Amino acid sequence: MSLIQAIILGVIQGLTEFLPVSSSGHLVLGEALLGVSQQLKAEVGIAFEVFVHFGTLLSVVTIYRQDILEMIKAFFSIFPRNRVSLELKYHQDKSFRLMVLILLASLPAAIIGVTLEEIIENAFGSPILVCFMLLVTGLILFISRYFLQGQKQLNFSNALAIGFAQAFAIIPGISRSGSTISTGLFLGLEREDAARFSFLLSVPIIAGATLIKIKELLENPPATALLINLIVGTICAYISGVIAIKFLLNIVRRGRLDRFAYYCFAVGILGIIGLTILK
Questions:
Q1: Which structural domain, as residue segments, surrounds residue 216?
Q2: pLDDT averaged over the chain?
Q3: Of 21, 43, 96, 181, which one has the greatest count of Cβ atoms within 10 A?
């Protein structure tokens, strides 16, 4: 992998991980267009995926560091004796409640990701599937324009529904942020609450996927000569991730998530046409 390829794919990962256009889908298409799909597997294996996902994880931690810190404090506060019951703490401590709902919403994607791992990995090798799924993402985003500003609060049922939306986004081409934020809006959450929950919900899934792949990375470490490219790709993923989160928050506040639908339609249609011609 060249330095330029690492920079381009790192930026793609960082931007599309949080913008509602599907990071997995864009990486598949980006690798195909750059002609590096086989090269990545041969040279760096799983290393690039681990590095850039770590970069995007740091993006969320940077933006939502206060929320994450408060949830960590809430978690450790349950261990000392003579404290309030977990049920009471859930109702009284908003940070503890948010942590519980994030863990609950993370279960569907975790279960599906583990049980259907081989099928999912095979899907990543199909650019044409990605293009069709981008059209589905575009449809989801377009429909979101009709969801009115809600006032509902997060609870077990809507958190679980958002969790299933995240699980659906395991399919390459389906946007994780697009599907989870749109689901939150459909359920009547406030726009900023839906976006905030979506971004925080990405932490367990990105961290979990990274930890699972780290074992493979340690078994097949990348060549020393490639480390600088991987580190640069990670930095690019981090910086572009921070930019993407801030940008999307502004879009969500204005209720114009549907603007990304036209991009997804365009990329999906052009991809289908291009891949058909190339065959």
A1: 3-278
A2: 84
A3: 181
97 contacts 91 by C-beta, under 8 angstroms: yes
If one counts the domains in the chain, the total is 1
Q: Considering Cα of 199, then 205, then 208, then 210, what sign does the dihedral take? A: negative
Alpha-carbon span 143 to 141, nearest angstrom? 5
pLDDT digits 0-9 by tens, 71-101: 998 888 877 655 567 778 888 889 999 999 9
Q: Which of 173, 231, 177, 181 is nearest to 206 (CA)?
A: 177
Burial of 181 (0-12, 13-18, 19+ CB in 10 A): buried
Question: How far is it, in rounded angstroms, from Cα 277 to Cα 279?
Answer: 5
Q: Which residue has the tokens 């599309």?
A: 16
* Single-letter amino acid, residue 203: V
Do the beta carbons of residue 189 and residue 154 sit within 8 Å?
yes
**In sequence order, what DSSP letters do the residues of 132-163 get, joined into one string?**
HHHHHHHHHHHHGGGPPP--BPP-HHHHHHHH
Residue 265: CB atoms within 10 Å: 17
The pTM for the full model equals: 0.85
DSSP 52-117: HHHHHHHHHHHHTHHHHHHHHHHHHTTSSSSPPPHHHHHHH-HHHHHHHHHHHHHHHHHHHHHHTH
Return all residues near 134 (Cβ < 8 A) that are at least 6 apart: 21, 22, 25, 173, 264, 265, 267, 268, 271
